[in-house]
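Please, structure for the following, as tokens.
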Amino acid sequence: MKKVTLSELTLREKIGQTAALRSNFLSKVENVDEYMKNNPYGILWTFGNIKMDFVNMAEENADDAALNADIYNRARNKHFSTLMKVPFLGAMDAERGCGSTFPYFSVTTSNTGIGSVGDSQAAYDHGKYIASEVKACGVKWLWSPVCDNPSPFCSVSLTRGFSDKPEVITEMTNAYVKGIQAAGVAATLKHFPGADRDEYRDSHFSDYLIRQNLDEWYERQGCVFQAGIDAGVESIMVGHLAFPAADDTKMNGKYLPATLSRKIVTELLKEKMGFKGIVITDAVGMRGLTAMFTNSEDFYAALYNAGNDVILGPNHIDFIDIVEKAVLDGKIPVERIDDACQKVLDLKEKLGLFDEDYEPLTLEERARIKNDAVEMCRKYAPRSISWMSRTNNLVPVKREDIKKVQFVYIGYNQPVLDAVEKHLKPEFEKRGATVSICDQVKNEAHMKEIAENNDLILYIAHIAPHQPYGMGGFILEKATQFINILAYGEEKSICISTGSPFIYNDWFPAAKNFLNLYCICPEYFEALVAGIYGECELTGTCSFNADPLAPRL
């Protein structure tokens, strides 16, 4: 297909190029082909992991699975392109791997797990393998990596950052971007202008502020984005967070989110920092943004006029109608649409969409790509898992001494408990142990019974982004059980975080043995148990200061 020019496109077709349609949004449409013919979107958001459960939500809903497969088979084969002048650009979030949406691919560790390796090659390798997997699914635009320098109190950021040290974030970010783009996929830095060092709120639900001045912001966060821009990243995602030092404009008594700010998107990012690539919004359904407007036409006009080139996940089924009317009403200059559309067309050309057909992979090809990712995880898992405390001689354990093992899961996320049973339990059973699992220490007597009847106790605690929703932590009976945890059997206990790097300091300060695992990947469970038995060394160093109240930039 020959690359089209702006003059060959109608206004509706140009608008469509500047929006990323959620794939599951099409479930609301009775006739998908007819809808796409009349609403010529240019970008398809491969969507599945709504609950951030690190599993394919389609596994819980066969209809969604069938819909996703049908849409993406048609997209890869350019089915929709017979209805439109410009081929789709498939795009997705895959911070932990393609397996978050497509179950036959892999799930890798978190950015915090990568940062704990202390080697930028790990970041490069993860970026390249994840990009190779998403490319195999017909996706060529990856909304990664997260390069925020987050507050330890912000639950939505837990495990998503590489480090709390700007120089480490920069090194890991640039290596990750190089890995993605070496695989022929466009990378994205997010979420500009970054994170506040003290903010605890989540823009999915509420306001979010960066309170630092411009110099402080640049020292801890702006420098990371500038390095990524200088290194040639293809796109940057803007977050729904206010930055009064850059724009103190207020609307309805609240500071303007960055996505609505021309001073931040255009004057700071594009002009002062020199970014020439595509600026995409974060998902525009988040409450931290939508609470600012009641009129949809004014809402989308403000996003475009701020300088955003692509609108991520518009919630209105008549989005193109709304934006077309805003342009015709003079609320959005047609030049703004043209500029954004041209950037998308240029990226599609760079990624080969005008001269390449996507063909479904064979099962053998899928298996080979997944195997590469598995081997990468096995390589880095022992170098990532980090001892936070190791103050007795329990580890390494001896097989002949460990006959009965008790897991105590502390968390709210069923897929994590499922992964513990499916992947962690068999690792102990291979070594001759019998494993029991519970998800609550009921009282002191129960704790004493666990200690008396087992040779080894593993406490597996999980807090991660949106796990649970709201503020990250334990409440009610999940919290009160800590009164009894380790009251008995401390000498035979190992405590593990599969998510937040701060659980040790917040909930287990008396633990003699504590490990940060950072993820629930099968290969990391393998390495964990091998390390416990002394079959390998676990050498990771947590890339965050474990004390959330320690001085920080």
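The longest helix spans residues 363-384. The chain has a mean pLDDT of 89.
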